Amino acid sequence: MLGQIARRLAYKIRHQLQPKTITLNGIRLTTERDHVPKDIQKQLYQNRYESQELSLVRAALVPGDRVLEVGAGIGFIGIACAKICGQDNILSYEPNPAMKAVIEKNYQLNGLRPNLRNKVLDVEAGEVEFYFSEGVLSSSLIDRNQGSATRVEADGISQVMDDFAPTAIVMDVEGAEIELLRRCSLDGVSKLVIEMHPHVVGPEQIDDLCDYLKDTGFSLKNRISKVYMFQRNDV
To answer: Which residues pair with 169 in a beta bridge?
Structure first.
């Protein structure tokens, strides 16, 4: 209850003042409407943008982890990863070209530079149809009838895993997590922080993916709502 009151108060004050930047959980972020879509700006003003992912990322990662971030958004979670692991240990994918400048701006505000690929990460390399939603948050490889399809360049996840050799994956891809995590080797990966999307793919698919990860050697260590943190059993 107190948290809801605090969020409403924060939103009211920020909505009136329209600050160009805010600090959210120790991370500076741009809130200018020229950069940030309205729905994301509202969540930032309310202090609730990606709070669940942030909590689990900070619990999971340690210095020296190599993080493959799939679905960078505005760069918030990637910056949190970089502050823990070092900016050279983060590789981020974000297919929305409108987000590239926002990510670069936010990293700059925090004295960092992104290792960003403005592409889709898919099962195979090439060109794929990606569905961009106006509000950004629901953009996906999956057609949810919320945006227009655009052909975009894709890297293949197996090749990226081989080349970058991540020890951790942080993923928010609006339902595409089901296929992506099944179609690559997770050898060498010890931690997964995944936002699941049962409203997109159905709860049965989420259960099946959790069972698959369990069979692959992972245990579910924590869960906050739709965000799951898995750890390899032998770590």
So the answer is: 68, 192
> What are the beta bridge partners of residue 229?
193, 222
pLDDT for position 20: 92
Amino acid symbol at 138: S
**Residue 24 belongs to what H/E stretch?**
strand 21-24
- Say what the pTM is: 0.91
- Low-confidence stretches of the chain (pLDDT < 70) are 1-3, 132-148, 235
The token duo for 160 is 């990226």
CB-based contact 95:119 (threshold 8 Å): yes
Is residue 50 within 8 Å of residue 73, measured between CB atoms? Answer: yes
What is d(CA 15, CA 45) in angstroms, rounded to the nearest whole number? 7
Mapped onto helix, strand or coil, the DSSP state of residue 216 is coil
DSSP-assigned states of every residue in 49-111: TTHHHHHHHHHH--TT--EEEE--TTSHHHHHHHHHH-GGGEEEE---HHHHHHHHHHHHHTT
d(CA 98, CA 201): 26
Residue pair 16/41 in contact (Cβ under 8 Å)? The answer is: no
Q: Which of 129, 76, 81, 138 is nearest to 107 (CA)?
A: 76
